[in-house]
Design a protein that fits this description.
This protein has 17 helices and ten strands. It has 390 residues and is mainly alpha-helical. The longest helix has 19 residues.
Length: 390
């Protein structure tokens, strides 16, 4: 159990500013009509009660409200809370806005806070419009998760191609810059299989939309890929970050020298956070990291494996790709590459001239299974062999 969940004392009021949790409460008070204490406890509960008990959340909310009032960021009149002029400016800057925001709570929650949770608070209103649609939200989540540009809202086919390039670069330990470009060199199926290796549970996805939906769900820790499910996942992440900041203050702006509130830093994953309050004895040690090869190491290992499995006459010896794969997965276990990663790495190594692949003009029916399992589609060609240079 976490310290808060076990009944440990909650952090008391801070001086001179609001905590990250306090800023979230401050945002709620800026909604049209302000908010009562009950509104704050109810409306912000989804951000915190996956980490805190309802009682602990209410205690924390009361302490943070008291801190906001004590620091002149919020006023209370007849049981209703509203931001002061300074408080409204602090809330706006927390959300990446230049001036006070006048909007209903639903809009602040579903647009402004979702943007904040994804690190998109500096984007224009036009770029945030996709947040209102489940497809757009999935796309933005995946773009942020894998470091892709969020300046455009690409169709699923283009996003899948971009993800395939990332997966290929990761297969090489991020020590090459893949040259697939827009992904046109790979078929849709091959690109989707490769991009599927980015999933926590790598598998074949039947459509690009399903691939993107699953990656979005995994990144925000949502239970489902619906619009509401993804929003809840993002908001919970925002709440968890606020709690991890603990007593760290976010400075509030003064009239003399405005200061931008510090962004809530993305926490570094730990065993404790991954286990989510599981007792240490129940936490399994993480598996050793994969030792991915660079291009030259990969090519050397493949050529060696191909030479030991090659068939044909001197000067024209070649090995089925499936036979080379059997050798590689046995001898290079530390690489931890999947078959689809291996085949796409082969295609990239061939494109860069590190090794040579060959196709079969005539297929021996006795070896049809080897041909089928060796096939590597690339552009308008299907490779079946690794050529052995002698």
């Amino acid at each position: 159990m976490s310290a808060l969940g076990s009944g440990a004392p909650l952090a008391g009021p801070r001086r001179g500013g609001a905590s990250a949790t306090g800023h979230l409460i401050l945002v709620r008070t800026t909604a049209s009509g302000g908010a009562t204490r009950a509104d704050i406890a109810t409306d912000l509960a989804p951000l915190f009660t996956h980490k805190l008990s309802p009682a602990d959340w209410r205690r924390l909310a009361e302490k943070e409200i008291g801190n906001l009032i004590a620091n002149g960021l919020v006023t209370e009149t007849r049981g209703r809370l509203a931001p002061s002029e300074t408080g409204a400016l602090a809330a706006a800057r927390f959300l990446g806005q230049k001036g006070p925001i006048a909007a209903p709570w639903s809009e602040l929650r579903d647009v402004a806070l979702i943007a904040k949770g994804l690190g998109l608070e500096k984007e224009t209103a036009a770029r945030l419009k996709p947040l209102a649609r489940v497809e757009g939200l999935r796309t933005l989540i995946v773009q942020k998760a894998f470091g892709l540009s969020v300046k455009k809202n690409p169709p699923p086919t283009k996003l899948r191609a971009q993800l395939a390039v990332i997966a290929l670069e990761r297969a090489f330990g991020n020590r090459i810059k893949a040259g697939f470009g827009k992904g046109s060199a790979l078929s849709a199926k091959a690109g989707r299989l490769l991009a599927g290796q980015l999933s926590q549970n790598p598998r074949a996805f039947t459509t690009d939309a399903k691939l993107i939906a699953e990656l979005a769900v995994e990144h925000v820790g949502a239970r489902e890929s619906t619009l509401e499910g993804l929003r809840l996942g993002v908001l919970r992440g925002l709440g968890a970050q606020a709690l991890e900041q603990g007593s760290t203050e976010i400075a509030t702006p003064s009239a003399e020298r405005p200061v931008m509130p510090a962004r809530v830093a993305e926490p570094t994953p730990t065993l404790a956070s991954v286990a989510n309050d599981v007792a240490p004895a129940a936490v399994k040690a993480p598996p050793p990291p994969a030792s991915r090869p660079d291009l030259s190491e990969f090519a050397r290992a493949v050529k060696k494996a191909a030479a030991s499995r090659a068939e044909g006459w001197p000067g024209s010896r070649k090995a089925f790709i499936s036979h080379v794969w059997d050798a590689i997965r046995t001898t290079q276990t530390s690489w931890k590459v999947s078959e689809i990663e291996f085949k796409c790495m082969l295609a990239e190594a061939h494109r860069l001239g590190a090794l040579v692949l060959a196709n079969a003009d005539l297929k021996d029916k006795k070896s049809i299974k080897e041909f089928e399992s060796s096939a590597v589609p690339y552009k308008n060609t299907v490779w079946h062999f690794v050529r052995v240079e002698e």
